[in-house]
Protein: PilZ domain-containing protein
Organism: Iodobacter violaceini
Amino acid sequence: MPTLASSPFAAHQDALNFPPPSPEHSARRLHETLFTLRQENDPNRLSPVLLQCFEAALLLLPKLEKPAYSDPQTHAALQLSQCLLQELMQGFIRTALLRSNETGLFTSSRPRLEAFGHALDSAWQLACLYSRSRTPLPPGFWQRCHQLFSDIHALGWAKRSLKNGSTPGTLYRKIMLLGISASNRLEPQKMAILFKIIEEEARFLDLVQRDQALTEQGAFIYQTDRDEAPHFAQPLAGEEQQVWWTIETQGILKQLSSRLQRLLNLNEDRHHEIQLIGRLLQEWTAPPRRQHFRIRRQNGEQIQLISLWDRCWNLAAGHIDETAPEPARLNICNISATGLLLQGESTDHPLQAGEILMLRRGGQHWQIGLVRWLSLRGDGLSSECGIELIGRSPEAVQIAPVTSLGTDILTPALSLAADRRRGHSGMLILAGKQYQAMRMFTVHDSRGICKVRATRLVMQTAYYQFIETRLEEISQKAGLD
């Protein structure tokens, strides 16, 4: 049986006359090694090689991952990363099974416990990878995780310490907690904070087995014999009594509340984390319900879409860029009073949660939208995304905050006229973090120069701020000196 040092992955590593292999090449060699390990049935030989492969894979993953894949090459690298972690998870599960067959007076339970721990650790890494890539988890993932925990729970090992300082129960709780988090609604910065919060707080999550009907408040539930993520459910009329596992979040919500209070007392710019914790306090109590009725579209209607701030601003300004790609055309799956569900490929116009878009149906005016959530379908470059419609006919303007030293350098912004239906008296959309209550801005638009005051932060993403404004002063009209 080849060790990692003698495997194809490690071949020529020390050859001075050859350049180091690319991450993709190294990953393929590592995958070949993992594939050969399927034939190894001696856990004493299997365990150390699997562990070496796991450590090597964790070093390779950051080099293989891209923020959002939009071409076949980066898509292939993503799939290779996913395959590596799936093989590792399966390998550790098989090792735990092989260890269960070991008998003898001096047989220790420690190797089997560590195999369980590595299986759950690789499952956690796999779940994080799929969240970052916004693709659906592979079939069988949840059932394998549930089965691992069932075996550990039956053995009474959930609280036993592993060599890495964690416990199998905590590792499983991390996976469950990520399962009830709407990570596809998060910008990459906030997703990284989510993983950190889960790492630090998951031990406070309670998992309780119940055989009673759900209460009126509902609960996060799952069943260990099903290949399903935990989900929020409420009691149904005529519901049969079943055995459920429920995820009790009261303990972790207390931890989050304390964490939020500490952040608010700090003199640091931690607004991303503050925003995220506020969101989690709601979502881990009960997910928000849909507010608007959605109408399904089945006639193949499409919408034009343009992404990226510079392109959106130039379009609103009427600037023509001959080098810019044609708008993407995505299918409208359903539509509501405030948003759209879109599906299709947007290769030249990358999508990301928290990003703004320009959208146009047929010959209508362009309107501005915000990507609320994004899921890549996993079978190619096709995506599915939820879009919130912000306003019609945005105007490209330039702004500068008014300071005691005068007016700062002008920066691009988008302006929306007052919209009573959406509840604002005029809005500026700014890139970055420029909002301060009652802050004054100079606005240069097609009508001239005016001053507006920020009255309310309507919403905020990691990239943009949507600020309600009030006109304070018209400094100069268009056409006047």
